[in-house]
Design a protein that fits this description.
It is a single chain. This protein is an all-alpha fold. It is built from five helices and no strands. The chain has a domain of 53 residues. The protein is 56% helix and 0% strand.
């Protein structure tokens, strides 16, 4: 492996997100619990680190869910959001509590 000499190079390479081997379902605002269940199964199987779950999930949002996500993230003004917090808030918005 060729190293660039960046001090945190290994840290970034180990947390790289790869496209899933099979297509994950898009979320448009319906059946949020079923959708999160599938994603949590995928995260467990692929050992996705906590910090990458939100980024990967946001790629599969569409329509009203994407609109909500963008507004939610803007409202956070750069504050970190934990995966559990995101799931709870999104489930509350799209069909009741987590």
């Amino acid at each position: 492996m060729i190293r660039s000499g960046w001090p945190y190079e290994d840290q970034f390479n180990n947390s790289r997100i790869h496209k899933p081997r099979r297509d994950l379902p898009m979320f448009e605002g319906d059946d949020v619990h079923k959708w999160f269940y599938k994603y949590n199964q995928y995260f467990d199987l692929e050992e996705i680190v906590e910090t990458n779950k939100l980024k990967l999930t946001s790629y599969y949002l569409n329509e009203m869910a994407l609109y909500w996500h963008r507004n939610f993230m803007r409202s956070r003004e750069g504050q970190l959001v934990s995966w559990n917090e995101y799931v709870e808030i999104m489930c509350s918005r799209f069909r009741g509590g987590a």
